[in-house]
Amino acid sequence: MQEPDPVCPAAGRVRLRGVRRVYRQGRAPVAAVDGVDLDIAPGRFTVLAGPSGSGKSTLLQLIGGLDRPDEGAVSLDGTRLDTLDDDTLTRLRGERIGFVFQSFNLVPVMSALENVELPLLQAGPSSTGSRERARSMLEAVGLQGLHRRRPGELSGGQQQRVAVARALVHRPRLVLADEPTANLDRASGQALIALMRTLQRGTGVTFVFSSHDPSLLDEADVRVQLLDGRLA
Protein backbone atom coordinates (compact mmCIF):
# COMPACT_ATOMS: atom_id res chain seq x y z
CA MET A 1 0.00 0.00 0.00
CA GLN A 2 1.41 3.35 -1.03
CA GLU A 3 1.63 5.89 1.79
CA PRO A 4 1.23 9.68 1.51
CA ASP A 5 4.11 12.02 2.16
CA PRO A 6 4.86 12.72 5.83
CA VAL A 7 4.09 16.03 7.48
CA CYS A 8 6.51 17.85 9.76
CA PRO A 9 6.96 15.51 12.76
CA ALA A 10 6.59 18.43 15.20
CA ALA A 11 3.29 19.55 13.70
CA GLY A 12 -0.18 18.81 15.01
CA ARG A 13 0.17 19.88 18.65
CA VAL A 14 -3.17 20.78 20.26
CA ARG A 15 -3.58 22.78 23.46
CA LEU A 16 -6.79 23.69 25.30
CA ARG A 17 -6.98 25.87 28.39
CA GLY A 18 -10.13 26.49 30.40
CA VAL A 19 -12.36 25.59 27.45
CA ARG A 20 -16.10 25.85 28.08
CA ARG A 21 -19.01 25.52 25.66
CA VAL A 22 -22.56 26.09 26.88
CA TYR A 23 -25.82 25.33 25.09
CA ARG A 24 -29.35 26.15 26.16
CA GLN A 25 -31.95 23.43 26.61
CA GLY A 26 -35.15 25.33 27.18
CA ARG A 27 -34.21 28.03 29.65
CA ALA A 28 -31.50 26.05 31.42
CA PRO A 29 -27.87 26.37 30.25
CA VAL A 30 -26.03 23.07 29.81
CA ALA A 31 -22.23 22.95 29.69
CA ALA A 32 -21.34 20.41 26.98
CA VAL A 33 -17.66 21.10 27.68
CA ASP A 34 -16.88 22.49 31.09
CA GLY A 35 -13.43 23.91 31.91
CA VAL A 36 -11.24 21.45 29.97
CA ASP A 37 -7.45 21.72 30.05
CA LEU A 38 -5.85 19.32 27.58
CA ASP A 39 -2.59 18.86 25.70
CA ILE A 40 -2.43 16.53 22.68
CA ALA A 41 1.09 15.72 21.55
CA PRO A 42 1.88 15.68 17.83
CA GLY A 43 1.96 12.42 15.95
CA ARG A 44 -0.20 10.50 18.40
CA PHE A 45 -3.34 8.38 18.07
CA THR A 46 -5.63 10.01 20.66
CA VAL A 47 -9.20 8.94 21.44
CA LEU A 48 -11.77 11.08 23.27
CA ALA A 49 -13.92 8.51 25.06
CA GLY A 50 -17.06 8.64 27.15
CA PRO A 51 -20.78 7.86 27.15
CA SER A 52 -23.29 9.67 24.95
CA GLY A 53 -23.66 13.25 26.13
CA SER A 54 -20.22 13.33 27.75
CA GLY A 55 -19.04 16.13 25.44
CA LYS A 56 -16.58 14.25 23.26
CA SER A 57 -18.08 15.32 19.90
CA THR A 58 -18.39 18.94 21.06
CA LEU A 59 -14.77 18.90 22.21
CA LEU A 60 -13.69 17.51 18.85
CA GLN A 61 -15.54 20.31 17.05
CA LEU A 62 -13.84 22.90 19.26
CA ILE A 63 -10.42 21.41 18.54
CA GLY A 64 -11.13 21.61 14.81
CA GLY A 65 -12.48 25.14 14.83
CA LEU A 66 -15.93 23.98 13.70
CA ASP A 67 -17.31 25.54 16.88
CA ARG A 68 -16.02 28.29 19.15
CA PRO A 69 -15.73 28.11 22.94
CA ASP A 70 -17.68 30.47 25.18
CA GLU A 71 -14.61 30.62 27.40
CA GLY A 72 -10.99 29.50 27.15
CA ALA A 73 -8.34 29.06 24.47
CA VAL A 74 -7.88 26.47 21.70
CA SER A 75 -4.51 26.36 19.91
CA LEU A 76 -3.01 24.34 17.07
CA ASP A 77 0.77 24.53 16.78
CA GLY A 78 0.73 27.77 18.77
CA THR A 79 -2.02 29.48 16.72
CA ARG A 80 -5.09 30.48 18.72
CA LEU A 81 -8.11 29.22 16.76
CA ASP A 82 -10.70 30.86 18.99
CA THR A 83 -9.45 34.39 18.24
CA LEU A 84 -9.32 34.10 14.43
CA ASP A 85 -11.92 35.74 12.22
CA ASP A 86 -14.15 33.41 10.21
CA ASP A 87 -12.26 33.75 6.90
CA THR A 88 -8.86 33.13 8.48
CA LEU A 89 -10.20 30.19 10.47
CA THR A 90 -11.73 28.65 7.34
CA ARG A 91 -8.45 29.02 5.48
CA LEU A 92 -6.48 27.48 8.37
CA ARG A 93 -8.83 24.50 8.56
CA GLY A 94 -8.43 23.94 4.82
CA GLU A 95 -4.65 23.96 5.12
CA ARG A 96 -3.94 22.19 8.43
CA ILE A 97 -6.92 20.05 9.46
CA GLY A 98 -8.64 17.04 7.91
CA PHE A 99 -12.07 15.79 8.99
CA VAL A 100 -13.65 12.32 8.92
CA PHE A 101 -17.35 12.12 9.86
CA GLN A 102 -19.39 9.07 10.83
CA SER A 103 -21.92 9.84 8.07
CA PHE A 104 -19.09 9.97 5.46
CA ASN A 105 -20.28 13.38 4.06
CA LEU A 106 -19.33 12.49 0.49
CA VAL A 107 -20.83 14.36 -2.46
CA PRO A 108 -23.16 11.75 -4.04
CA VAL A 109 -22.92 13.01 -7.63
CA MET A 110 -19.10 12.97 -7.60
CA SER A 111 -16.86 9.98 -8.15
CA ALA A 112 -14.54 8.73 -5.42
CA LEU A 113 -11.64 10.46 -7.16
CA GLU A 114 -13.52 13.76 -7.41
CA ASN A 115 -14.52 13.60 -3.74
CA VAL A 116 -10.90 13.13 -2.68
CA GLU A 117 -9.69 15.88 -5.02
CA LEU A 118 -12.26 18.39 -3.74
CA PRO A 119 -10.19 19.86 -0.85
CA LEU A 120 -7.31 20.51 -3.25
CA LEU A 121 -9.55 22.32 -5.74
CA GLN A 122 -11.06 24.41 -2.93
CA ALA A 123 -7.54 25.51 -2.03
CA GLY A 124 -7.33 27.43 -5.32
CA PRO A 125 -5.59 27.29 -8.69
CA SER A 126 -2.18 26.66 -7.12
CA SER A 127 -3.14 23.02 -6.53
CA THR A 128 -1.08 21.67 -9.42
CA GLY A 129 -1.29 17.92 -9.85
CA SER A 130 -4.38 17.63 -7.67
CA ARG A 131 -5.89 14.80 -9.74
CA GLU A 132 -2.75 12.70 -9.51
CA ARG A 133 -2.38 13.34 -5.78
CA ALA A 134 -6.01 12.32 -5.23
CA ARG A 135 -5.46 9.15 -7.25
CA SER A 136 -2.37 8.29 -5.18
CA MET A 137 -4.31 8.87 -1.98
CA LEU A 138 -7.07 6.48 -3.11
CA GLU A 139 -4.38 3.87 -3.77
CA ALA A 140 -2.98 4.52 -0.27
CA VAL A 141 -6.32 3.58 1.28
CA GLY A 142 -6.65 0.46 -0.87
CA LEU A 143 -9.22 1.70 -3.41
CA GLN A 144 -7.21 1.42 -6.60
CA GLY A 145 -9.50 0.66 -9.52
CA LEU A 146 -12.55 2.19 -7.83
CA HIS A 147 -11.80 5.85 -8.50
CA ARG A 148 -14.69 6.29 -10.97
CA ARG A 149 -17.39 4.89 -8.69
CA ARG A 150 -19.81 7.22 -6.95
CA PRO A 151 -20.53 6.83 -3.22
CA GLY A 152 -23.77 4.94 -3.88
CA GLU A 153 -21.77 2.29 -5.74
CA LEU A 154 -19.43 1.67 -2.79
CA SER A 155 -19.88 -0.23 0.47
CA GLY A 156 -19.97 1.64 3.76
CA GLY A 157 -16.39 0.67 4.53
CA GLN A 158 -15.24 1.81 1.10
CA GLN A 159 -17.06 5.14 1.49
CA GLN A 160 -15.32 5.73 4.81
CA ARG A 161 -11.97 4.97 3.17
CA VAL A 162 -12.77 7.64 0.58
CA ALA A 163 -13.50 10.01 3.47
CA VAL A 164 -10.13 9.17 5.06
CA ALA A 165 -8.35 9.75 1.74
CA ARG A 166 -10.12 13.11 1.40
CA ALA A 167 -9.08 14.08 4.94
CA LEU A 168 -5.41 13.32 4.24
CA VAL A 169 -5.01 14.44 0.61
CA HIS A 170 -3.96 18.01 1.46
CA ARG A 171 -1.32 16.76 3.94
CA PRO A 172 -2.87 18.23 7.10
CA ARG A 173 -1.14 18.43 10.45
CA LEU A 174 -4.19 17.19 12.32
CA VAL A 175 -6.99 14.74 11.40
CA LEU A 176 -10.18 14.70 13.47
CA ALA A 177 -12.57 11.75 13.21
CA ASP A 178 -16.00 11.80 14.87
CA GLU A 179 -17.19 8.23 15.57
CA PRO A 180 -15.63 7.00 12.29
CA THR A 181 -16.62 3.35 12.81
CA ALA A 182 -20.17 3.96 14.11
CA ASN A 183 -21.90 3.18 10.81
CA LEU A 184 -19.71 0.22 9.89
CA ASP A 185 -19.95 -3.47 10.70
CA ARG A 186 -17.32 -4.89 13.04
CA ALA A 187 -15.01 -6.24 10.33
CA SER A 188 -15.14 -3.02 8.29
CA GLY A 189 -14.58 -0.95 11.42
CA GLN A 190 -11.52 -2.92 12.44
CA ALA A 191 -10.11 -2.71 8.90
CA LEU A 192 -10.60 1.06 8.93
CA ILE A 193 -8.85 1.39 12.29
CA ALA A 194 -5.88 -0.64 11.01
CA LEU A 195 -5.74 1.54 7.89
CA MET A 196 -5.77 4.80 9.85
CA ARG A 197 -3.10 3.49 12.21
CA THR A 198 -0.88 2.58 9.25
CA LEU A 199 -1.37 6.01 7.68
CA GLN A 200 -0.70 7.74 10.99
CA ARG A 201 2.56 5.89 11.48
CA GLY A 202 3.60 6.54 7.89
CA THR A 203 2.87 10.28 7.89
CA GLY A 204 3.33 11.38 11.51
CA VAL A 205 0.02 13.26 11.36
CA THR A 206 -1.87 13.70 14.63
CA PHE A 207 -5.14 11.75 14.79
CA VAL A 208 -7.85 12.64 17.33
CA PHE A 209 -11.04 10.59 17.50
CA SER A 210 -14.29 10.72 19.41
CA SER A 211 -15.47 7.16 19.93
CA HIS A 212 -16.71 4.49 22.29
CA ASP A 213 -15.65 1.67 19.94
CA PRO A 214 -13.57 -0.79 22.07
CA SER A 215 -11.37 -1.67 19.07
CA LEU A 216 -10.43 1.97 18.60
CA LEU A 217 -9.92 2.52 22.33
CA ASP A 218 -7.56 -0.48 22.44
CA GLU A 219 -5.50 1.00 19.59
CA ALA A 220 -5.14 4.46 21.17
CA ASP A 221 -1.78 5.88 22.24
CA VAL A 222 -3.69 8.18 24.58
CA ARG A 223 -7.24 7.84 25.88
CA VAL A 224 -8.97 10.99 27.17
CA GLN A 225 -11.99 10.05 29.28
CA LEU A 226 -14.85 12.55 29.44
CA LEU A 227 -17.86 12.66 31.75
CA ASP A 228 -20.46 15.44 31.81
CA GLY A 229 -18.18 17.72 29.81
CA ARG A 230 -15.17 17.33 32.07
CA LEU A 231 -12.05 15.21 32.05
CA ALA A 232 -12.80 12.18 34.20
Q: CATH superfamily of the domain at 42-65 and 96-231, called what?
A: P-loop containing nucleotide triphosphate hydrolases
Q: Ranges with pLDDT <50 over ≥5 residues?
A: none
| Biggest sheet overview | 6 strands, mixed
**SSE string:** EEEHEEHEHHHEHEHEE
User: Strand percentage, roughly?
Assistant: 25-35%
Q: What's the CATH C level of the domain at 42-65 and 96-231?
A: Alpha Beta
- As a percent range, the share of helical residues equals 25-40%
Shape-level CATH architecture of the domain at 42-65 and 96-231: 3-Layer(aba) Sandwich
CATH topology of the domain at 42-65 and 96-231: Rossmann fold
Organism: Rubrivivax gelatinosus
Keywords: ATP-binding, Cell membrane, Membrane, Nucleotide-binding, Transport
Domain ABC transporter: 14-232
InterPro entries: AAA+_ATPase, ABC_transporter-like_ATP-bd, ABC_transporter-like_CS, ABC_transpr_LolD-like, MacB-like_ATP-bd, P-loop_NTPase
Notes on the protein architecture:
This protein is an alpha/beta fold and 232 residues long. It has a domain of 160 residues: Rossmann fold (3-Layer(aba) Sandwich). It has a six-stranded mixed beta sheet with strand order 6-7-8-3-9-10. A four-stranded antiparallel beta sheet has the order 2-1-4-5. Helix 3 crosses helix 4, helix 4 packs across helix 5 and helix 5 packs parallel to helix 6. The chain is globular and about 50 Å long. The mean pLDDT is 91.
Keywords, separated by commas or semicolons:
232 residues; alpha/beta; six-stranded mixed β-sheet; four-stranded antiparallel β-sheet; 7 helices; globular; ATP-binding; transport; ABC_transpr_LolD-like
